[in-house]
Every structure is written in structure tokens, then in C-alpha cells.
Write a structure and sequence with these properties.
The complex is a heterodimer. In chain A, 51% of the residues lie in helices and 11% in strands. By secondary structure, chain A is an alpha/beta fold. Chain B has a single domain, classed as Rossmann fold (3-Layer(aba) Sandwich), CATH 3.40.50. The N and C termini of chain B lie far apart (63 Å). The model of chain B has no long low-confidence stretch (mean pLDDT 96). Classes of the chains: A alpha/beta, B alpha/beta. Chains A and B meet through helix 2, helix 3, helix 4, strand 1 and helix 8 of A and helix 1, helix 2, helix 7, helix 8 and strand 9 of B. Strand 9 of chain A pairs antiparallel with strand 9 of chain B.
Chain lengths: 472, 235
């Protein structure tokens, strides 16, 4: 077996090819995404008017987006008043350095991590390991992916791409247990191993689903209880968030909670919503002694500069756009090569990592608009994808041949004379490229799509013939 | 310039000079919420029970405190529990929870929570919760639209009580069932702003995962069972 293609957005084409022939993987992804979508339909049925829920969610997040400085300042003031330390990081490297420093000062050697896309975005686990701190992913899916040395393939189901047999072999190899592929047994093993880690870890690290300005609280949503463990048992809790995660008040938070799980997994509410405001109070019986919230930019402010992309910052990371996307359903999260996959991933990765690296991503879409229809905060995803294609072309990042061909196509479409000439030329030369099945082999163009042989006689000639007959 | 100042400079520039004040933003937010339908107050208990059960929790409705105590003792006896952790709420003492369990099941150890925090008391408390078959605490509120409850970290109830034992039992008064989470946001704001607690947790079911081929398994990290005992209004 050849070495797998490295998971980078530059490798999108190769990654897609690698996955598209894997029937097991495709079956798993299709089943998982379908399950979530079916359950979602059941859960949103609670509301007579789900559209009103989406509108309100959009309204809340839009208000935040247009007043970020105000809400961030309010959050900082209220969080600080509750004893939370709020610190800022320009980028991922700075955030990693800050977190390493906090852990070193606390004398910590083991950090238990709850699932956080933001920490994946900045490669926090690797940064900790380099500094001699043992990072332990505690979400079961993340733990599996960490043991395998891979990266998550779905926002809410990180190990979606792995079969129970693969996971069984992984556990047998790394945890010294007898091989089993029974999910119940494997989960029980992970519970036992990770419970020990929770009880002895010095530091817990989590993401943030929402930071509430008017109380200075943060909310962390989860099903497993690993975020509860990570934010309850260790002495220090570090929470990492992008600055866009703010909501104005608790009422807004409850609205986000109401739509988040319904959109993500089709639950009415996740098993645990941890609302945390500061470290343990003097009279409380347990909880961390120290809470640090790291507020990070890492390229997010760039969205503010582009009116057509800024609403990408409304995203609450539910993953519904991925579940409903025909491309995602076919290739899964790893097919994109970016930690942020699917429609939202293809919109934000070119901004976060640069168009040069991620220029293929906006094309990994049929522009069908299912993502925009399902998004609970009403991000106009498919128009953003179209705009990202525009930016990729503007940036002259397309292949020279494709650009030349497109320019020729534009000229032909504008002039009846040139169009007729080009159509004639096409039917004359097409037989040279005929593959014998009604399609042609054109350089580049037909590598990933079929190009049919021009009709003979041409549509224009057929039309002329017909109208002539009718008149006659 | 510090990272903080850089970010604030950037974000302030985005808004420009016409930044609205607190009152204008609050009014705008009110407009957003005014467009939402008011959640129904019909059949709160019934919906709460149905939806909690659907989420993998187990609702038990009791007509009286005596009925609740009888059920709890039966539950503990049948499960063969060796020890439980009990929150130190005043109403638990009024119900005689601890004394009645001990009187009926003398072999069962009932761990009370420490009166105050200390490093030693904390270690002992964690070890007890870790070994306990059940943690018994209170629910501040229940939500009919999801079947979830809200629990509070306080001097009377540890966080670990509802996290480490095999089973988490929360006692909820029927009168505390609200139509939905939004109806509780004002109370949560007050609790946090007056520094009554550092942690409110909404619990919507037992700890669960579907990370291995989407097969649902409960008790991945936290409690395998999540019970809510609802005590009726008449009680």
C-alpha cells in the first residue's frame, strides 16, 4: 500500500481520489450524515416556525459581528470581575506559547483536552508535546484520532472515518487489551483509561461554544462529560476561543443552545452544557482554582475586510452544512485536507490559511445551496463559495490554460459570429479527442468531468431546419 | 502594541465612529427576540417526562415525598449500591433523606459533603464520589421542551457529585418545570452576576457517545444513568 496523501488543502484533488474509491468509508460517512440529518428534522419539528429560530440566531450573531469591540470589552470586564483571566493571542503560535507558559507556571505535566476545533486549528497538541507536556484528547473520537496520529474528519464526530475493527486494532496495539471490535467494550476501556487521566491531570483545556458578554461566562457544549471532567477536576482550566464566539447575554446563549444541538446531532439539547463564570468560589466544594480564557484572532479579523465573507464569522460550528453537502457525503472531512471541512471549511480555510494553499476548496461544491438552506445562523454559504472562486480567479491562481480557455469562451459568447465559428471548429476537431463513448478527452478539463461530443448536426442547424419545416 | 490593543484597534475600526450605546444595542436585541413565538405552557410535566426519556434519561414522577423516598430506597436496594453521595440541601434534610436511607438500608454508606472546602476534604470527597453508585442532588429547574435540567455548583452541592458516580439522580419539584431554557435565562443571569456560583450545568441525558460507527453507548465518561425524580405540586 502506498503512503497516504498528507492532509493539506493543497492536496485536495489527490485526497478526494484516495477516498472516492473507498466504499467502506463512503458508506460510513453517508450513514452517519444521514442519521444526523434525519434526527435533525425530528428535533426542529418542535418549532412551528423554525425559520423564526434561524432568523433570531442570525440577528443575535449579526449584532455581535457588527459590534465586536463593544461585546468583547463587556465580556472582558465581566469575566475579569468573576476572577477569570482574559488574555489575547494574535495567532496560533502566540496562543500555543501562552498556554504552554500557563501550564509551566502551574507546574503542570499532563493536560486533559476536551474537544476544541480551535485547538486543532492551531496544532495545540503538538505544541504542548514539544514542550514536554503530555496532551490527552479525552473526547472518545478525538482520543481515537490521537492514538492513530491523525486529524479529526468531522466537527462533531471526529473518528467518523474509522471502522470499529480499525479502532479495535488501535486499542489492542496502544492500550494492551485483547482485540475486540465491540463499541460498548471499547468505550468502557477508554472510560477506564481516561478516568485515571482526569483524576491526575494538572490542567484542563477546552474550547468555547459561546462567551457571554453580560455575565462574563463561557459555555462549553458536549455529550460525553469529558469537558465537565476537564473543567472540574484539574487545578487549572484554560479555555481557547476565537473572538467571534461572543453572544450578548444569557438569553442569547439559551437561543444558541436551543438551535446548536438540534442542528448538529439532532438532539434537542446536548447532554451537558457547561456554563462557567470564573474559578471555584471560596464556598464551592470543587472546581478549578484558576480559569484563563485565551481570545484569539489567527486570521479571523481578515473576514471583516470583505463584505461578502464577513458573515462567515457567524458560524457556531454545528456541522449541519457538512452533513447535508453532497460533496462532504461523498469524500468526508479528510477529503478537503483542512481541519475545517465541508462548505464552511471551504469558505474559511482560504482566508485563514491563504488562497494560494486552499484555492481548490471552493470548487469542492456543487453550489446546490443545501448548505445555505440548513445553516441555523443563515450564513449564505453557497454564494460565499462562489465568491471564493471569484477571488481564486482574480488572484490568477487558476491554471494558465483554463484562464485562456475561459477568456476565449467569453469572447465567443459575446459575438454571434465568433460563436458560430467556434462551434464549427469544435465539431470539426472534436473527433480527434473522441474516446469512443460519446465523450471527449480534453486536456485538464476532462480529467474530472466528461465533455460530450458536439451534436451533429449542431443545435443551430437543427433549429433552422425545424423552423423551416414549420413555415413550409 | 500588545495583542489585546491590536485586536481592539482593529475591531473598533470596523465599527467606526457610530458605535451604538448599551441602550441601543439592548433595544436591537429585544427586537430580535420579540419576533420569536412564546413557548407553550401546556402539558409541561408530560412533555418534560417524554423528552427526558427520549434523550436516554429516566423521569420518575412522585405524588408525594413519601412515595419518592420509598422508590429511592427500593432503587438503591435493588441495584445493590454500596455507597451514595448526598448533597447537603436544607430540603433534603427536611425530607429526612439521609436518616431514612440509613434506617432502612444500614449496610449502605451515605456520604455527606464536607461543610467547607479544604484540600484534604476535597480529595476525600472526590474519592467518595468516584466509588459511589449514585450521586443525589437537586435540579434548580427543568425544561419541558428538551427534558433537560439545570444544576448548580454551591456549598451544598459539588460538581463531582453529579459527574463521577455511576448514576446521577436529580430531585426536581414540578413547579420548577419551565417551558424552555429561555425562561431560565433571567435567573441564570442573576445567579452569575451576584456571584452565587461559578458553574451552572444543563444536563440533558446520561453521558453518551456515538463516536464508534455512530453506535450509541452511554456512560462514556460521566454517569451511565441519569434519573430525575419529579415531586408533584400537591406534595
Amino acid at each position: 500500500m502506498s503512503a497516504p496523501v498528507e492532509l493539506r488543502p493543497e492536496n485536495l484533488r489527490a485526497l478526494v481520489h484516495e477516498r472516492i474509491g473507498n466504499a467502506t468509508l463512503r458508506g460510513n460517512i453517508m450513514r452517519a450524515t444521514r442519521t444526523s440529518l434525519d434526527k435533525r428534522l425530528h428535533a426542529i419539528d418542535d418549532y412551528e416556525d423554525w425559520e423564526a429560530m434561524r432568523d433570531a440566531a442570525h440577528g443575535i450573531k449579526r449584532l455581535v459581528l457588527d459590534n465586536l469591540a463593544h461585546y468583547l470589552e463587556t465580556f472582558e470586564r465581566n469575566a475579569t470581575a468573576r476572577g477569570t483571566r482574559v488574555v489575547y493571542a494574535r495567532d496560533g503560535a502566540e496562543a500555543c506559547a501562552i498556554i504552554v507558559d500557563i501550564i509551566h507556571r502551574a507546574g503542570g505535566r499532563v493536560a486533559v483536552k476536551a474537544k476544541s476545533m480551535t485547538s486543532e486549528e492551531i496544532g495545540l497538541g503538538h505544541a504542548l508535546a514539544r514542550e514536554g507536556i503530555e496532551p490527552i484528547e479525552t473526547d472518545l473520537g478525538e482520543y481515537i484520532v490521537q492514538l492513530a496520529g491523525e486529524m479529526p474528519s468531522h466537527i462533531t464526530a471526529p473518528a467518523l472515518h474509522k471502522s470499529r475493527e480499525e479502532i479495535g486494532r488501535l486499542f489492542a496495539e496502544h492500550l494492551g487489551i485483547a482485540y475486540t471490535s465491540d463499541p460498548e467494550t471499547l468505550t468502557a476501556v477508554a472510560r477506564r483509561v481516561l478516568r485515571e487521566k482526569f483524576l491526575h491531570a494538572d490542567v484542563g483545556i477546552s474550547g468555547v461554544n459561546a462567551a457571554v458578554a453580560d455575565t462574563g461566562a463561557i459555555a462549553i457544549v458536549e455529550n460525553e462529560g469529558n469537558a465537565r471532567m476537564s473543567t472540574t477536576l484539574p487545578r487549572v482550566h484554560i479555555a481557547l476561543m476565537g473572538f467571534e464566539k461572543l453572544v450578548p447575554d444569557m438569553r442569547s446563549l439559551t437561543h444558541i443552545v436551543n438551535i446548536l444541538a438540534r442542528s448538529a446531532t439532532g438532539q434537542r439539547i446536548s447532554c451537558y452544557t457547561n456554563i462557567i463564570a470564573g474559578p471555584r468560589k471560596a464556598d464551592e466544594l470543587d472546581g478549578p482554582e484558576e480559569l484563563v480564557v485565551v481570545v484569539m484572532d489567527n486570521g479571523r479579523a481578515r473576514f471583516l475586510d470583505d463584505a461578502r465573507l464577513r458573515e462567515a464569522l457567524l458560524c457556531i460550528r454545528c456541522g449541519a452544512c457538512m452533513n447535508t453537502c453532497p460533496v462532504y457525503q461523498t469524500v468526508g472531512g479528510h477529503g478537503y485536507g483542512s481541519i475545517y471541512a465541508g462548505p464552511i471549511g471551504s469558505v474559511i480555510t482560504p482566508v485563514l490559511q491563504g488562497m494560494e494553499r486552499a484555492k481548490a476548496m471552493p470548487y469542492a461544491s456543487s453550489l446546490c445551496g443545501a448548505c445555505s438552506d440548513i445553516c441555523p445562523v443563515k450564513i449564505d454559504l453557497h454564494h460565499m463559495l462562489l465568491w471564493q472562486r471569484h477571488r481564486a480567479v482574480e488572484g490568477k491562481l487558476g491554471h494558465w490554460f483554463e484562464r485562456l480557455a475561459m477568456r476565449g469562451f467569453l469572447a465567443a459568447m459575446r459575438s454571434p459570429f465568433l460563436y458560430r465559428f467556434a462551434a464549427k471548429a469544435a465539431s470539426m476537431f472534436a473527433p480527434l479527442f473522441h474516446k469512443g463513448d460519446g465523450t471527449t478527452r480534453l486536456p485538464l478539463w476532462s480529467r474530472s468531468r466528461d465533455f460530450r461530443m458536439p451534436a451533429e448536426p449542431s443545435f443551430r442547424d437543427q433549429w433552422k431546419e425545424r423552423t423551416h419545416e414549420r413555415k413550409g | 502594541m500588545s495583542a489585546r490593543d491590536e485586536l481592539f484597534t482593529r475591531l473598533k475600526a470596523d465599527r467606526g465612529d457610530d458605535a451604538p450605546g448599551d441602550a441601543a444595542l439592548a433595544a436591537e436585541l429585544d427586537r430580535v427576540f420579540a419576533a420569536l413565538p412564546v413557548p407553550s405552557r401546556e402539558g409541561l410535566l408530560q412533555r418534560f417526562v417524554e423528552r427526558l426519556n427520549e434523550a436516554g434519561g429516566e423521569a420518575r414522577v412522585h405524588e408525594s415525598v413519601e412515595h419518592f423516598l420509598g422508590w429511592l430506597i427500593g432503587e438503591l436496594r435493588d441495584s445493590g449500591a454500596a455507597s451514595v453521595v448526598l448533597a447537603s440541601h436544607k430540603d433534603f434534610a427536611e425530607m429526612g433523606l439521609s436518616t431514612k436511607i440509613s434506617a432502612t438500608l444500614p449496610a449502605l454508606r451515605v456520604h455527606e459533603l464536607p461543610a467547607a472546602f479544604s484540600a484534604e476534604a476535597h480529595s476525600a470527597m472526590i474519592a467518595e464520589a468516584e466509588a459511589a453508585a449514585m450521586g443525589i442532588g437537586r435540579a434548580l429547574a427543568g425544561f419541558a421542551d428538551s427534558g433537560a435540567i439545570a444544576i448548580l455548583s454551591s456549598r451544598n452541592e459539588s460538581r463531582s457529585l453529579s459527574l463521577l458516580p455511576e448514576t446521577h439522580l436529580a430531585v426536581l419539584r414540578e413547579a420548577d418545570i419551565l417551558p424552555d431554557l429561555g425562561n431560565f435565562s433571567h435567573e441564570m443571569t442573576e445567579l452569575l452576576k451576584t456571584d452565587k456560583t461559578s458553574a451552572i450545568t444543563l444536563v440533558g441525558g446520561p453521558s453518551k457517545t456515538a463516536d464508534i460507527e455512530k453506535v450509541l453507548v452511554t456512560g462514556v465518561h460521566g454517569p451511565r444513568r441519569f434519573l430525575v425524580a419529579v415531586i408533584r405540586k400537591s406534595a
